[in-house]
Amino acid sequence: MQSYQTFKTIDNNSKTHLAKLIIQHELGDFQFDVPKITPQRLQELAREVAAEFPCEDELTYYVPRNLKGNQCPMGKLYEAYQGIRRKFSRVKKRKFKAEVPF
Prior knowledge:
With about 100 residues, the protein is an all-alpha fold. It has one domain. Helices cover about 65% and strands about 0% of the residues. The chain has helices at about 1-5, 10-25, 40-50, 60, 75-100. Helix 2 (about 10-25) crosses helix 5. The longest helix has 24 residues, at about 75-100. About 15% of the residues are buried.
């Protein structure tokens, strides 16, 4: 976050890292299934980031699904959440395959 302190802006890598940290904190420790984060909570988190860093736009961190245009949710927080869910799903499948004898 040195770039924010110096230039009052956050570079893309730092935004991605910040989003991952926020989502990991939000999920906490889990063992069996990734906890759900509601769209309302993602929007709230995006607002909190924008409030903490005035140079940031909350739409960078979360854009809700658009029902009219069938647009999927987007943003750094959503991508970080989906990345963790995908990663956990792959680990869970490998573990299940290892435990089930054929």
